[in-house]
């Protein structure tokens, strides 16, 4: 009697993880966390739901990884780059606002900032997603404040200026630029707002 061979199992389907994350990022950016279903994600990412769960965990875990990828991209991480690269605090914040005015309305990607707008409206069971982004934004404000305190110690910023208030101010301007971009404001309009906002920079004389 001839032996029957056991059929070999096929190799697990592979996919481009970075491309899948990019597709998920665009979807969350366009629709917000609540506006995206698992079905939407699997279709956009080109994978089955089982592969999504195996590779990324649940929807919340995927979203957090997407936000991390966004924060390390040129369109999401430009503020941190400016803080590190610019020799003066004024130069850093001027660069941040001017780049935001161009990046946020850029038609090559969804308008605004993913970390600002992706979880403005979530259900109570997803409140931790809103808290995750809130904490991320607050850490960014802390980073702004730290840079401003350095500037104050160096004599670049007026001794009478309040670094925390100024950090909150620039964070608020950024959030406003993001929202206006989502509302259809152009780069030239947002640049004019950025320049006006920079006029509030305290002088060395106070």
UniProtKB/TrEMBL annotation:
Domain of life of the organism encoding this protein: Bacteria
InterPro entries named among the record's database cross-references: Homeodomain-like_sf, HTH_TetR, Tet_transcr_reg_TetR-rel_C_sf, TetR_C
Gene Ontology molecular functions: DNA binding
Keywords: DNA-binding, Transcription, Transcription regulation
Pfam families from the UniProt entry: TetR_C_13, TetR_N
HTH tetR-type domain boundaries: 14-74
Residue spans binding DNA: 37-56
PANTHER family: HTH-TYPE TRANSCRIPTIONAL REGULATOR YJDC, TRANSCRIPTIONAL REGULATORY PROTEIN
Protein name, entry field: TetR/AcrR family transcriptional regulator
Organism: Streptomyces mexicanus
